[in-house]
Amino acid sequence: MLLDVQDLRKTFDNGTRALRGIDLSVQDGEFVVILGPSGSGKTTLLRSINGLVGPDAGKVRFCDRIISPSTLPDLRQKTGMVFQDFNLVNNLSSLNNVLTGLLDSSNKFMSMFYLFSREQKLRALDCLKRVGLLDKAYTRADQLSGGQKQRVGIARAIVKRPVLLLADEPVASVDPLIAYSIMSLLRDVGNEFGITVICNLHQVDLALKFSDRIVGLSGGRIVFDAPTREVDDAYIRNIYRGHDRGLFFEDSGEAEGMSQ
Ligand SMILES: Nc1ncnc2c1ncn2[C@@H]1O[C@H](COP(=O)(O)OP(=O)(O)OP(=O)(O)O)[C@@H](O)[C@H]1O
Ligand SMILES: [Mg+2]
Question: Whole-structure pTM over 0.70, yes or no?
Answer without folding.
Answer: yes
